[in-house]
Design goal:
29% helix
Length: 77
Amino acid sequence: MPAPVKSIRVGGVQASIWENPLKDGSGVIRSVTFDKSYKVGDEWKKTQSFKIGDIAQLQLALQKVLEFHYLKSEEEF
């Protein structure tokens, strides 16, 4: 499985940025996934479900994703 090109962590929230090449080879399409780590006993788990209290961390992670995307896009020109 390919690795994300960038992972951004804010508290327990992680944003992973993925790049997939266009079929014609003219560039890439970026996508993003979000998950949250939490601990049950001694075991770490992940979920894609978030509580209202996670919104600030999601918002900051999303802002950092946008910054990465736009700065990376400027480098490509």
